[in-house]
Design a protein that fits this description.
1 helix; five-stranded mixed barrel; 150 residues; 6 strands; mainly beta
């Protein structure tokens, strides 16, 4: 038996791109940056960044394109796939993670991962003291913020 499984947690390096296939299915692509910290032979602390191309299909593609943005922390599970094509007589390759599952990480505005957005519509914010933006309304069937392991 063989295993092709990728699990990545990182930050988006660019805003997601949403496109439609000729069949009508939605496809979203984005790139995640991960880093690792290690000590080299001289004992100096080094940091190395890696970049991963991610492709998401279907309803999760629509949700990812709607709620993710550059800098967002995201956890992706899927499989590795390498595509090849010829362009101008030269063979090109692209290795990417085809996501089965996408989970959104903590918000970058310092807000926590509460399960339900708090709606204080009766209390109007004072001028210059605006309330922080509300948490996005995540779809229950695909992505549950309570399932995020971090």
């Amino acid at each position: 038996m063989y295993l092709n499984k990728a699990m990545i947690y990182g930050n988006l390096t660019r805003d997601p791109e949403l496109k439609s296939l000729p069949s009508g299915m939605q496809v979203c692509s984005f790139s995640l940056a991960t880093n690792r910290v290690f000590n080299d032979r001289d004992g100096k602390r080094q940091e190395q960044a890696d970049y991963h191309n991610v492709v998401v299909f279907g309803r999760q593609a629509e949700t990812s394109a709607k709620y993710l943005k550059k800098g967002s922390g995201t956890y992706v599970e899927g499989r590795m796939q390498t595509r090849s094509w010829d362009k101008d007589g030269q063979k090109h390759y692209r290795t990417e993670v085809v996501a089965d599952r996408v989970q959104f990480g903590p918000r970058s505005d310092g807000g926590g991962g509460s399960a339900a957005p708090q709606n204080n519509s009766s209390a109007a914010p004072e001028k210059g003291n605006e309330a922080p933006p509300q948490a996005p309304d995540y779809p229950d069937e695909d992505i549950n913020p309570e399932d995020i392991p971090f």
